[in-house]
Amino acid sequence: MPRQESNSLSDDPASPYLIRAARVADRESIGDLWLDLMEYHRERDPRFKIGADARAKYIRNVQEMIRMRECRVLVAENRETGELVGYVTAETKHYAPVTIAGLYGAISDFYVSPLHRRHALGKRMAEEVFRWMHEKKCVAVQLNVAEANPEGQAFWAAMGMEPFLRLLHKTF
Known about the structure:
Shape: globular
Helix content: 25-40%
Strand content: 15-25%
Oligomer: single chain
Structural class: alpha+beta
Largest sheet: 5 strands, mixed
Order of helices and strands: EHHEEEHEH
Number of strands: 5
Distance between the termini: 39 Å
Strand order of the largest sheet: 1-2-3-4-5
CATH class: Alpha Beta
Radius of gyration: 16 Å
């Protein structure tokens, strides 16, 4: 379904960063941030690999998410330079019939460029996406955090997230 929401969000005018809904025109910059995110993970765990055409596929996926009502893509923009320095992708999903009833929010990607961390940017983006999920009547939020990402684990714990399931992996 097409998105019918505005790009304007609650704002902190004192912050050097604007958190806003992503636009289709942001897709290339989001693709670059995604590559940074993947490199961050690959440096910590070599199982994070991407194919030669992964960035192009990711950009197409983000473009679709930006247009979909059940998805939310937010970006963090440096007010001075206009550069995108962070982003989050999320969507609402229905729980399987054997679990909790209702919708849940799923955060699939979340990244803030290292030079722009420690400015409450991640917290503001997480709070905004949580607010959106609440408006969509989600009963919970879920996300994956890499085992080799203690910074991410600490961030999400500070945001009130708790371990629930553990993803196990074996490479052949």
